[in-house]
Amino acid sequence: MRTENKSNAGVINYDELPELRLVLLSGDWIPVHLPERIKDHFVESEVISLGGATEASIWSIYYPIKTVKAEWTSIPYGYPLSNQTYYVLNYENDPCPIGVKGEFYVGGKGVAEGYLNDKEKTEASFIDHPDFGRIYRTGDMGVLTQEGYIEFLGRKDHQIKVRGYRVELGEIESVILEHRQVRNAVVINQKDARNQDVLYAFVAGHQSLPPTDLKEFLSLKVPEYMIPSYIVQIEEVPLTSNGKVDRKKLLALDVTDQASIGRKIKVPRTEIERDLVDIWKSVLKTDEISIDDNFFELGGNSILIINLITAIEDRLFIKLDFKNFISNSTIEKLAKVISVSERKSKTNSNVMEIQADIKNKNTEFDLTNVQMAYLMGRDKQFELGGTSTHAYLEIETELNIEKLNKSLQKVIDYRDILRAVVLPNGRQKILQQVPQYEISVQDISQLSDIERERRK
Q: % helix / strand / coil in the chain, to the nearest 5?
C-alpha cells in the first residue's frame, strides 16, 4: 500500500494505514527504540525479530519483543526456530559455557549443502561436526545467556580496534538509526596514513541532517571513540547486484570536506608549542593538529610515544620523563612542563658518565622509557595494546640440553637484568636469587605419530 499526504509529501500518514497484527523485524542490530516506535502507531501489534543466514534458509532464529531493557544496545538474537539449531562454539568447535563469547553455527534441516561450484568456500564454511552433524559457520559472534536466548555481539569481520577499544560497526549503525531523522545508515572503517582505523558514517535521512547535529546526538549515546570521524549524508545506500551494501562505492565518495566538521583548531602561541606541533605532525602523520588534541585520541600508542619523546629530546634538548608525558598528553599541557629554562644548550651539553651503583643494585628503581612503553603497551586502551611477541621454533639438533641449561643459568647469574621483576607500583627490582632455570625435556622418541601430535 502506498500513502501520500498531499499537504506534506514524503511524510507517512499513519491514520491511513490499516491495523497491523504482526510486525517482523530482521537484521543483526535492530535498534532498541524501533519496537516502541512501532507500538506508538500499532498498539495491538505483536513485534518479533528474526535473524539467520541465506546458507540456512534465511531465517533460523527469532525473539518475541515484549519489553526492551534499558541496558540493551540491540534486540537479542533469540531462540532457534522449529527444525533449526543454533550453537555458540569456541575456536576448537566445542560449545562455549553460558556467557562466554563464541562464534555462531547453524544446524538443522535448513542448512544448505554448500556453495554451487565452489568447493573451497564450502569447505571453509560448512563443517561436519562429530556431535552436531552438518553445521554452517556464520561468522557472527555472541553468547548464550542464562535465560536461554542468544545475544548477538557483532560480525567477526566487522569488529575493529579504534584507539585500543574493540568496536562493532553494526552497534554504531544501530545507535545512529535511533535518530528520528535517519532512515538508513552504514558505518565503514578505513585505514588512514598512520594505518589507524578511521570510522566513516554514511547516512540516508528523511531530511537534511547536519553532521554536527548527528555527532552531538551520538555523544549522548556512545563513548567518544565510537563517534565516526566522517559523517556523509546520502540519498540512498548503494547496493551490489546481490543486495549487499556496496561499501566500495561508498568509500569512493568525496568526504574531504568532512574533516573539519565539529572541530576547532587551537593554534600554537609560543615557540615551544610551535615546535611541538611540528613534531606531532611528523610522528602522527597528520597535517592538522590542535594544541588541545590528546595524543592518544589522535591514535597515539606506546610505540609512537617513544618516537615522540625521542624527537622532542633531539629537537628541544631536554630530557622528557615518560610519566610526565602520560599525564600531559596535549601540546598545551606539555609546553607548560617544558619551560625555556629547562632546555639545555646543545653546545654546553656533556656526555654523562654512568657508574654502576653496586651497593644499591637490589633496591627499587624506575623503569626506563623503553620498559615503560612496553608496560603501557600491554594495556588494551592503546591501539596496539594487549599484544606481545612470541616465537615457536622447532629445531632438529644433537645439542646437549643439559649443558645448554647450565650455560643459560650462568648467564642469568651473571646478568642482573635477567633477574629483574616489575613491581605492582610500576617500578622494578633486581632479585638476588631466583629459582634455578630448567629446560623441560620430554622424550617422545618411542611414541607413535598420533601420540606425538597429542603432546604438541
A: 30, 20, 50
Reduce the DSSP state of residue 64 to 3 states and report it: strand
Rounded to whole angstroms, the Cα distance separating 344 from 346 reads 6
How many residues appear in the chain?
456
How far apart, in whole angstroms, are the C-alpha atoms of residue 429 and residue 419?
8
Which of 220, 171, 214, 177 lies closest to 73, judged by CA?
171
Provide CATH 1.10.1200.10 ranges for the chain: 271-342
- And the C-alpha cell for 175? 545507535
Residue whose C-alpha is closest to residue 220's, from 178, 189, 280: 178
**Nearby residues of 440 by Cβ (< 8 Å), 6 or more positions away:** none
261 neighbors 211 (Cβ within 8 angstroms):
yes
What residues contact 147, with CB distance under 8 A and at least 6 apart?
none
Q: d(Cα 167, Cα 187) in Å, to the nearest integer?
A: 11
Q: Are 138 and 61 in contact (CB under 8 A)?
A: no
Measure the CA–CA gap between 103 and 18, rounded to whole angstroms: 41
Angle between the N-to-C axes of helices 302-316 and 369-377, in degrees from 0 to 180, rounded to the nearest 10: 150
Q: Could you tell me which CATH number the domain at 271-342 has?
A: 1.10.1200.10
User: pLDDT, tens digit, for every residue of 192-243?
Assistant: 666 667 888 999 887 778 888 898 899 888 888 888 888 888 888 888 876 6
Model confidence, pTM: 0.50
Element (H, E) at 410: helix 401-414
Question: What three-state secondary structure class fits 141?
Answer: strand
DSSP bridge pairs for 151: 143
Annotate 245-273 with b (16+ C-beta within 10 A) or e (fewer). Answer: eebeebeeeebeebeeebeeeeebeeebb
Cell of 228: 565516526
| Region of residue 243 (left: phi > 0; alpha: psi -120 to 50; beta: else) | left
What's the CATH number for 163-258? 3.30.300.30
